[in-house]
Design brief:
Distance between the termini: 6 Å
Catalytic activity: Random endo-hydrolysis of N-acetyl-beta-D-glucosaminide (1->4)-beta-linkages in chitin and chitodextrins
CATH architecture: Alpha-Beta Barrel
Radius of gyration: 17 Å
Keywords: Carbohydrate metabolism, Chitin degradation, Glycosidase, Hydrolase, Polysaccharide degradation
Family: Belongs to the glycosyl hydrolase 18 family.
Largest sheet: 8 strands, mixed
EC number: 3.2.1.14
Number of domains: 1
Organism: Hevea brasiliensis (Para rubber tree)
Order of helices and strands: EHEEHEEHEHEHEH
Helix content: 25-40%
Strand content: 15-25%
Shape: globular
Structural class: alpha/beta
CATH topology: TIM Barrel
Length: 208
Protein backbone atom coordinates (compact mmCIF):
# COMPACT_ATOMS: atom_id res chain seq x y z
CA UNK A 1 0.00 0.00 0.00
CA UNK A 2 0.91 3.66 0.18
CA UNK A 3 0.42 6.85 -1.81
CA UNK A 4 1.98 7.27 -5.25
CA UNK A 5 2.90 10.68 -6.66
CA UNK A 6 4.20 11.81 -10.03
CA UNK A 7 7.02 14.34 -9.84
CA UNK A 8 8.69 16.31 -12.60
CA UNK A 9 6.08 18.14 -14.65
CA UNK A 10 5.78 21.32 -12.58
CA UNK A 11 8.89 23.39 -12.08
CA UNK A 12 7.29 24.99 -9.01
CA UNK A 13 6.54 21.74 -7.17
CA UNK A 14 9.81 21.72 -5.26
CA UNK A 15 12.76 19.39 -5.54
CA UNK A 16 12.60 15.63 -5.30
CA UNK A 17 14.29 15.86 -1.90
CA UNK A 18 11.62 18.28 -0.67
CA UNK A 19 8.85 16.06 -2.02
CA UNK A 20 10.09 13.01 -0.15
CA UNK A 21 10.85 14.94 3.04
CA UNK A 22 7.10 15.45 3.51
CA UNK A 23 6.89 11.73 4.35
CA UNK A 24 3.50 11.60 2.61
CA UNK A 25 4.44 9.22 -0.19
CA UNK A 26 5.59 5.64 -0.53
CA UNK A 27 6.36 5.80 -4.25
CA UNK A 28 7.57 8.67 -6.42
CA UNK A 29 7.39 8.38 -10.20
CA UNK A 30 9.77 10.68 -12.07
CA UNK A 31 7.78 11.91 -15.07
CA UNK A 32 8.39 11.47 -17.92
CA UNK A 33 10.62 9.70 -20.40
CA UNK A 34 8.33 10.78 -23.21
CA UNK A 35 10.41 10.11 -26.31
CA UNK A 36 11.66 6.61 -27.12
CA UNK A 37 11.19 3.65 -29.41
CA UNK A 38 11.18 3.12 -33.18
CA UNK A 39 14.79 4.24 -33.53
CA UNK A 40 14.34 7.57 -31.74
CA UNK A 41 16.97 8.90 -29.36
CA UNK A 42 15.29 8.63 -25.93
CA UNK A 43 14.56 11.91 -24.19
CA UNK A 44 13.42 12.75 -20.68
CA UNK A 45 11.28 15.81 -19.95
CA UNK A 46 11.27 17.23 -16.43
CA UNK A 47 9.64 20.56 -17.30
CA UNK A 48 11.35 23.44 -15.49
CA UNK A 49 13.41 21.32 -13.12
CA UNK A 50 16.45 20.84 -15.32
CA UNK A 51 17.71 20.69 -18.90
CA UNK A 52 18.59 17.10 -19.85
CA UNK A 53 20.03 18.17 -23.21
CA UNK A 54 22.79 20.03 -21.38
CA UNK A 55 23.32 17.25 -18.85
CA UNK A 56 21.62 19.35 -16.19
CA UNK A 57 19.44 16.59 -14.74
CA UNK A 58 22.23 14.58 -13.16
CA UNK A 59 21.63 16.63 -10.00
CA UNK A 60 18.40 14.65 -9.55
CA UNK A 61 20.55 11.75 -8.31
CA UNK A 62 20.86 13.46 -4.93
CA UNK A 63 17.09 13.60 -4.61
CA UNK A 64 16.69 9.98 -5.68
CA UNK A 65 19.10 8.78 -3.02
CA UNK A 66 17.48 11.01 -0.39
CA UNK A 67 14.10 9.42 -1.10
CA UNK A 68 15.46 5.88 -1.13
CA UNK A 69 17.21 6.36 2.23
CA UNK A 70 13.76 7.08 3.65
CA UNK A 71 12.41 3.83 2.21
CA UNK A 72 10.60 5.50 -0.67
CA UNK A 73 10.65 3.70 -4.03
CA UNK A 74 11.63 5.97 -6.92
CA UNK A 75 10.57 4.96 -10.43
CA UNK A 76 10.94 6.36 -13.93
CA UNK A 77 7.59 6.85 -15.64
CA UNK A 78 7.37 6.15 -19.37
CA UNK A 79 4.95 7.95 -21.65
CA UNK A 80 2.54 10.60 -20.43
CA UNK A 81 -0.10 12.56 -22.28
CA UNK A 82 2.34 14.39 -24.56
CA UNK A 83 5.34 12.94 -26.33
CA UNK A 84 6.66 10.79 -29.13
CA UNK A 85 6.83 7.21 -27.96
CA UNK A 86 5.96 3.85 -29.44
CA UNK A 87 7.27 0.32 -29.81
CA UNK A 88 7.66 -0.95 -33.34
CA UNK A 89 8.56 -4.60 -32.69
CA UNK A 90 9.77 -7.10 -30.11
CA UNK A 91 13.32 -6.15 -31.03
CA UNK A 92 12.47 -2.51 -30.44
CA UNK A 93 11.06 -3.40 -27.01
CA UNK A 94 14.31 -5.20 -26.21
CA UNK A 95 16.36 -2.18 -27.26
CA UNK A 96 14.27 0.13 -25.07
CA UNK A 97 14.58 -2.27 -22.12
CA UNK A 98 18.36 -2.38 -22.56
CA UNK A 99 18.49 1.42 -22.70
CA UNK A 100 16.42 1.77 -19.52
CA UNK A 101 18.60 -0.75 -17.70
CA UNK A 102 21.84 0.88 -18.76
CA UNK A 103 20.78 4.48 -18.18
CA UNK A 104 18.37 4.44 -15.23
CA UNK A 105 18.55 1.06 -13.49
CA UNK A 106 21.48 -1.18 -12.63
CA UNK A 107 23.50 -0.75 -15.81
CA UNK A 108 26.69 1.24 -16.19
CA UNK A 109 26.17 3.69 -19.03
CA UNK A 110 28.51 6.69 -18.92
CA UNK A 111 25.72 9.05 -19.98
CA UNK A 112 22.99 8.45 -17.40
CA UNK A 113 20.48 11.36 -17.71
CA UNK A 114 19.68 11.40 -13.97
CA UNK A 115 23.20 10.71 -12.78
CA UNK A 116 24.53 7.61 -11.08
CA UNK A 117 21.64 6.90 -8.70
CA UNK A 118 19.90 3.59 -9.42
CA UNK A 119 16.13 3.81 -9.74
CA UNK A 120 13.90 1.12 -8.26
CA UNK A 121 11.92 0.42 -11.39
CA UNK A 122 9.82 1.57 -14.32
CA UNK A 123 6.25 2.89 -14.40
CA UNK A 124 4.12 2.52 -17.54
CA UNK A 125 1.88 5.55 -18.22
CA UNK A 126 1.09 4.82 -21.86
CA UNK A 127 -1.66 7.05 -23.24
CA UNK A 128 -1.19 6.99 -27.02
CA UNK A 129 0.84 5.46 -29.83
CA UNK A 130 1.14 1.75 -30.45
CA UNK A 131 -0.91 -0.74 -28.46
CA UNK A 132 1.62 -3.49 -29.17
CA UNK A 133 4.78 -4.86 -27.53
CA UNK A 134 4.35 -3.30 -24.07
CA UNK A 135 4.05 -6.83 -22.71
CA UNK A 136 7.41 -7.64 -24.32
CA UNK A 137 8.96 -4.56 -22.72
CA UNK A 138 7.65 -5.69 -19.33
CA UNK A 139 9.14 -9.17 -19.79
CA UNK A 140 12.53 -7.85 -20.88
CA UNK A 141 12.69 -5.43 -17.94
CA UNK A 142 11.57 -8.08 -15.48
CA UNK A 143 14.35 -10.38 -16.67
CA UNK A 144 16.91 -7.89 -15.35
CA UNK A 145 15.76 -8.70 -11.81
CA UNK A 146 17.76 -11.91 -12.17
CA UNK A 147 20.94 -9.83 -12.12
CA UNK A 148 20.45 -8.83 -8.50
CA UNK A 149 18.28 -5.92 -7.43
CA UNK A 150 14.58 -6.37 -8.15
CA UNK A 151 13.22 -4.19 -10.95
CA UNK A 152 9.77 -2.99 -9.89
CA UNK A 153 7.23 -2.55 -12.69
CA UNK A 154 4.07 -0.51 -12.20
CA UNK A 155 1.30 0.90 -14.36
CA UNK A 156 -1.28 3.65 -14.22
CA UNK A 157 -3.91 2.39 -16.65
CA UNK A 158 -6.85 4.46 -17.73
CA UNK A 159 -10.25 3.62 -16.33
CA UNK A 160 -11.86 1.46 -19.06
CA UNK A 161 -11.06 -2.23 -18.61
CA UNK A 162 -9.07 -3.70 -20.21
CA UNK A 163 -6.77 -0.74 -20.85
CA UNK A 164 -6.36 -0.13 -24.59
CA UNK A 165 -2.59 0.25 -24.43
CA UNK A 166 -1.55 -1.74 -21.37
CA UNK A 167 -4.02 -4.62 -21.39
CA UNK A 168 -1.53 -7.20 -22.66
CA UNK A 169 1.24 -5.89 -20.40
CA UNK A 170 -1.01 -6.13 -17.34
CA UNK A 171 -1.97 -9.66 -18.35
CA UNK A 172 1.66 -10.75 -17.93
CA UNK A 173 1.22 -10.38 -14.17
CA UNK A 174 4.54 -8.53 -14.02
CA UNK A 175 3.14 -5.03 -13.50
CA UNK A 176 1.53 -3.73 -10.34
CA UNK A 177 -1.54 -1.61 -11.06
CA UNK A 178 -1.95 1.08 -8.44
CA UNK A 179 -4.26 3.70 -9.87
CA UNK A 180 -6.23 5.00 -12.78
CA UNK A 181 -4.98 7.67 -15.14
CA UNK A 182 -8.33 9.34 -15.75
CA UNK A 183 -11.93 9.07 -14.71
CA UNK A 184 -14.35 10.91 -16.98
CA UNK A 185 -18.07 10.95 -16.23
CA UNK A 186 -20.26 11.68 -19.27
CA UNK A 187 -23.48 9.85 -18.45
CA UNK A 188 -23.79 8.98 -14.79
CA UNK A 189 -25.73 5.74 -15.13
CA UNK A 190 -23.42 4.24 -17.76
CA UNK A 191 -20.28 5.62 -16.17
CA UNK A 192 -21.20 4.20 -12.79
CA UNK A 193 -21.31 0.66 -14.15
CA UNK A 194 -18.08 1.08 -16.11
CA UNK A 195 -16.28 2.76 -13.23
CA UNK A 196 -17.42 0.20 -10.68
CA UNK A 197 -16.41 -2.70 -12.91
CA UNK A 198 -13.03 -1.17 -13.70
CA UNK A 199 -12.28 -0.35 -10.10
CA UNK A 200 -13.28 -3.83 -8.96
CA UNK A 201 -11.07 -5.50 -11.55
CA UNK A 202 -8.22 -3.13 -10.77
CA UNK A 203 -8.42 -3.66 -7.02
CA UNK A 204 -8.46 -7.41 -7.52
CA UNK A 205 -5.22 -7.20 -9.49
CA UNK A 206 -1.65 -7.47 -8.18
CA UNK A 207 -0.40 -5.09 -5.52
CA UNK A 208 2.94 -3.65 -4.49
Amino acid sequence: GGIVIYWGQNGNEGTLTQTCSTRKYSYVNIAFLNKFGNGQTPQINLAGHCNPAAGGCTIVSNGIRSCQIQGIKVMLSLGGGIGSYTLASQADAKNVADYLWSNFLGGKSSSRPLGDAVLDGIDFDIEHGSTLYWDDLARYLSAYSKQGKKVYLTAAPQCPFPDRYLGTALNTGLLTMYGFNSITIHHASIAQVTLTTSLTRGIDGPHL
